[in-house]
Inverse folding.
C-alpha cells in the first residue's frame, strides 16, 4: 500500500546549519495495517509522515502509494495533526463539509455525510459551534471527522493525541480503534508514547534521531478488537511496552537532546 | 453586567474627547486668538448641526463620502488580491515586491497634480489618490498575514483534493482575515485623510473644498465645520467597519 524507498530529508537553514532530518528510510506498509512510528523528538518522524502526505518533498528517495509515486497531497491520504488545524472561521459542520463541498459533492449529500460522521464522533449536538468553543478532545474529533469525510484510504496521524490530557487521550484512542475496526484503513500513526503505539498498532517502528532512521521494527501480536481494560492486564501487552520502552530510553539517551 | 461595563468603558473613552473640547474652549476664551479667528466649540457645533439641515452642505458631504468609499473599496480589492497573489506565487511576489518597495514610500499626494491633469478635476483624480494611498497598508497586511498562516491549515485543504489556487482563497485568505482587516482599518483612516486633502488642494466640491472656501473668505466658523463633518464620517465608517469585522471574525479568538 505504502512503500517508502530510501527517503532522506535535509534541511538547509544556512550553509553552516544543515540538518539531516531523515537518512535513508525504507519501510513498507500493507493495506489495512496500523503502523506506529515511535521516536524521540527531533527524529524526523513527523517529517516522514509529511513526505508520505506529499506536503514536504524528500531530498532523496521516493514514496509510492499503490505503486504510484507521491507528487503532492491527495484525498487518498488524509492527515490528522496534533494542532487540529481546524478552520477557525467555520463551524464544526462547516469544517467537516469543506472538503466535500470543494470537491463538488451536492450540498444535501455533503450535509448528510457530515452529520453521519459527527454522530460517529459523538459531536452531533455541536455542529453549529465554532472550534474555539470546543475542548481539545472535541476539536480533534472534529478534525478526524473532517478527514474521514473525503474517504481517504490511508490515515496519516501526526501525534494526534499529543496535545490532550491523559484521560481524553485514552478515550480518543478507544474511539480511534473503534472507528478503525469498521473499515480497517491503512494508518501511519506518529507518537512518542510507547503505550499508545503498542495499544493501537500491528507494528511499531522505532526511530533514532540525528540523523533520523529506523532502528527497529516490532510486530505487535495482540488480538483485536482490543480493549484497554483487558490489555492493561495482559502480560504480552506489558512485555511489549517494557521491551520497547527500554529500547526507547537507550535511543533517547544517544540523542543530543 | 457586561452592558454596564461596556457603557462605563464608553464613558471613560469620552473623557479625553471632552478634555480636548474643553482645551479648545479654554484657548478660545483666553484671548490668545481673537474670537473672529478662533471660534468656541459651542459656536462651531451649533453651526454644524444647522448645516446638517442644509441640502447644499449635505451634497458636499455626500460627494466626499462617495470618493472616500469608492477609493477605499477599490484599494481593498486591489490590496487583498495583490497581497494574496504574492503569497500564492513566488514569481508574482518577485515582480510585486520591488514595485511595492519603490512606490510605498513615495508621498502619493505629490502625484496629485499629475492625477488631476490626466484624470480631471472631478471624482476620478481624488478616487485614484485615495486608492494609491490606502492600497499599500492593505497589501502589506494581507501579504504578512497570509504568509504567517499555519501551513497545516492549507495542507488540510490540499489533502482534501482542493487545488492550490482554491486553497489560497478558501483557506489562506480567511485565515489571514484578522491581519487583512487591521490593514483595511488603517487604509480606511488614510482614505478619510487623503480624500479631504485632495479636495483642499483642487476641487469644486466636497468637505475639503468647503474648508478652503471658508478659510479664503475668513469665515472661521465654517472653516471648522467640515473638520467636524469628516470626523463624524470617519466615526460612522468605523462603526460600519466594526460591524463587518465582527461578522467576518466570528470564530476567531477574541483580541482582548
Amino acid at each position: 500500500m505504502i512503500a517508502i524507498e530510501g527517503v532522506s530529508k535535509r534541511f538547509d537553514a544556512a550553509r553552516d546549519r544543515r540538518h539531516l532530518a531523515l537518512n535513508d528510510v525504507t519501510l513498507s506498509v500493507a493495506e489495512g495495517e496500523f503502523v506506529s512510528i515511535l521516536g524521540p523528538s527531533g527524529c524526523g518522524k513527523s517529517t516522514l509522515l509529511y513526505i508520505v502526505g506529499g506536503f514536504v518533498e524528500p531530498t532523496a528517495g521516493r514514496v509510492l502509494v499503490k505503486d504510484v509515486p507521491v507528487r503532492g497531497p491527495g484525498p487518498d491520504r488524509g492527515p490528522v495533526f496534533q494542532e487540529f488545524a481546524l478552520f477557525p472561521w467555520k463551524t464544526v459542520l462547516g469544517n467537516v463539509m469543506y472538503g466535500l463541498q470543494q470537491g463538488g459533492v451536492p450540498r444535501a449529500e455533503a450535509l448528510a455525510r457530515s452529520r453521519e460522521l459527527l454522530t460517529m464522533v459523538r459531536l452531533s449536538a455541536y455542529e453549529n459551534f465554532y472550534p474555539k468553543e470546543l475542548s481539545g478532545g472535541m476539536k480533534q474529533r472534529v478534525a478526524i471527522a473532517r478527514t474521514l469525510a473525503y474517504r481517504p484510504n490511508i490515515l496519516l496521524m501526526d501525534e494526534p493525541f499529543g496535545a490532550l490530557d491523559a484521560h481524553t487521550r485514552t478515550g480518543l484512542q478507544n474511539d480511534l480503534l473503534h472507528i478503525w475496526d469498521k473499515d480497517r484503513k491503512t494508518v501511519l500513526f506518529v507518537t512518542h508514547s510507547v503505550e499508545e503505539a503498542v495499544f493501537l498498532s500491528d507494528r511499531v517502528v522505532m526511530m533514532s534521531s540525528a540523523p533520523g532512521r529506523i532502528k527497529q521494527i516490532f510486530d505487535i501480536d495482540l488480538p483485536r478488537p482490543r480493549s484497554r481494560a483487558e490489555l492493561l492486564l495482559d502480560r504480552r501487552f506489558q512485555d511489549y511496552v517494557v521491551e520497547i520502552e527500554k529500547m526507547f530510553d537507550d535511543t533517547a539517551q544517544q540523542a543530543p537532546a | 453586567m457586561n452592558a454596564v461595563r461596556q457603557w462605563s468603558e464608553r464613558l471613560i473613552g469620552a473623557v479625553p474627547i471632552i478634555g480636548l473640547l474643553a482645551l479648545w474652549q479654554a484657548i478660545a476664551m483666553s484671548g490668545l486668538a481673537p474670537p473672529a479667528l478662533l471660534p468656541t466649540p459651542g459656536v462651531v457645533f451649533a453651526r454644524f448641526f444647522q448645516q446638517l439641515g442644509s441640502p447644499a452642505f449635505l451634497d458636499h458631504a455626500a460627494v466626499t463620502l462617495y470618493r472616500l468609499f469608492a477609493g477605499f473599496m477599490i484599494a481593498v480589492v486591489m490590496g487583498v488580491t495583490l497581497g494574496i497573489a504574492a503569497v500564492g506565487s513566488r514569481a508574482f511576489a518577485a515582480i510585486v515586491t520591488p514595485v511595492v518597495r519603490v512606490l510605498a514610500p513615495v508621498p502619493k499626494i505629490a502625484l496629485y497634480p499629475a492625477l488631476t491633469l490626466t484624470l480631471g478635476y472631478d471624482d476620478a483624480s481624488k478616487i485614484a489618490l485615495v486608492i494609491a494611498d490606502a492600497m499599500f497598508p492593505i497589501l502589506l497586511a494581507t501579504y504578512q498575514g497570509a504568509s504567517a498562516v499555519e501551513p497545516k491549515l492549507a495542507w488540510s485543504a490540499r489533502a482534501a483534493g482542493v487545488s492550490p489556487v482554491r486553497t489560497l482563497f478558501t483557506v489562506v485568505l480567511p485565515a489571514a482575515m484578522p491581519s487583512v482587516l487591521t490593514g483595511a482599518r488603517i487604509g480606511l483612516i488614510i482614505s478619510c485623510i487623503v480624500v479631504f486633502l485632495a479636495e483642499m488642494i483642487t476641487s469644486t466640491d466636497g468637505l475639503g473644498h468647503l474648508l478652503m472656501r471658508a478659510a479664503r473668505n475668513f469665515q472661521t466658523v465654517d472653516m471648522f465645520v467640515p473638520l467636524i463633518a469628516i470626523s463624524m464620517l470617519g466615526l460612522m465608517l468605523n462603526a460600519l467597519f466594526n460591524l463587518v469585522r465582527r461578522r467576518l471574525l466570528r470564530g476567531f479568538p477574541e483580541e482582548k
In short: Chain A has a mean pLDDT of 92. The radius of gyration of chain A is 18 Å. Chain A touches chain B at residues 53-55, 72-75, 77-79, 81, 83, 85, 87-91, 98-99, 102-103, 130-132, 143, 146-147, 149-150, 152 (CB under 8 Å).
